Amino acid sequence: MKHLITLCTAVLISSLSYGQWQVSASSGYALGSATMKLGERINTSETENSYGSYGEGTNVQLRGTYFFDDSFGVDLSVGYLQGTDQDVSIIDLPSTEVNAVARARAFGASASVVYKFTNNIYGRFGALLKLGGKTEGVIYQKSVFSEAEAEAFGVPVGSYSETNYKEDFHGHFPLGFVGALGYKYDLDSHFSIFAEAEYYGISLKRKDSEISAFNTDVKLPDGTVAVSGLYTLDNLPEGINRTTTYVDNLSNSNTDTSKELSQKVPYSSFGLNIGITYKFERLNKE
Fold first, then answer.
1. What is the pLDDT of residue 60?
2. Count of alpha carbons within 13 angstroms of residue 260, beta-carbon side
3. What are the extents of the domains in the chain?
4. Could you say which architecture CATH assigns to the domain 20-279?
5. Structure confidence at residue 175 (pLDDT)
6. If DSSP codes are grouped into helix, strand and coil, which group holds residue 85?
7. Residue 36: exposed, middle, or buried by beta-carbon count in 10 A (0-12, 13-18, 19+)?
């Protein structure tokens, strides 16, 4: 046992002695991968499924890497994803218009193993974790009043309600996979630039959501506001909950509309990153 401990200590000291630190910064764009149905697009002639992944969008990353030798290392990175709008509900009917989209605003981290195949080509793979953020829903809805509704509000036929609101969805902390294959080019002994293809495989199970902004106005046929702030965040219409909790099971007799069945939403993506790396001096040159 003592010999084993001595050997492991010697290997660790040797690796640290000849190891090298480097830091990188990069930015890139990713397309959705392993997409799932997110909603529907409806008009007078057809209904179409909308597929996508909330992992699509622009990202920035900061990474620290430690190489034990000329080939093998470990990597820790943090990043932010500015997701693109994904269609959740698009309705275009004579009496109803809806434009509901959702996009990711997420912080994540990954821990990976890095291997240099050559001095220029490398690969890395490891675990991916979402640290925080939200899936932000932005909803616009226009509903044309029936004759009875218009009469009740004392407005002309053709008047309508116009609602705008935002809802922030939060999820349980997931664990996923990250893998990348890259090419780097040394500018000098310290700086290099790189380009890499990167894959994220991860899904997020919803935990809760909260309406963060809400406003409904009544408008005349020409768009003039007849009633401002009919409904607000502090005066939500009946049946709309400010907060919703997502659970794995619900009783068939449940009447609490603030609880809904949970679902998994995709964050998987495949993208391209471009960045720059700074290499520190070796701790102990040969």
1. 97
2. 15
3. 20-279
4. Beta Barrel (2.40)
5. 92
6. coil
7. middle
Q: What gap in Å lies between CA 145 and CA 164, rounded to an integer?
A: 17
Question: How far apart, in whole angstroms, are the C-alpha atoms of residue 260 and residue 278?
Answer: 48
Between CA 62 and CA 27 the distance in angstroms is: 9
Indicate the helix (H) or strand (E) that contains 64.
strand 57-67
153 φ/ψ angles, rounded to the nearest 5 degrees:
-85, -10
CA 168 to the chain's CA centroid: 12
User: Residue 17: enclosing H or E segment and its boundaries?
Assistant: helix 2-17
**225-232 vs 191-201, strand pairing mode:** unpaired
pLDDT digits (tens, 9 = 90+) for 241-254: 999 999 999 999 88
Q: Which two tokens stand for residue 257?
A: 């509309």
Q: What is the pLDDT of residue 4?
A: 38
Partners of residue 242 on adjacent β-strands: none
Specify the pLDDT at position 206: 93
Q: Tell me the whole-structure pTM to 2 decimals.
A: 0.85
Residues found in the chain: 286
Residue 262 structure tokens? 């949970």
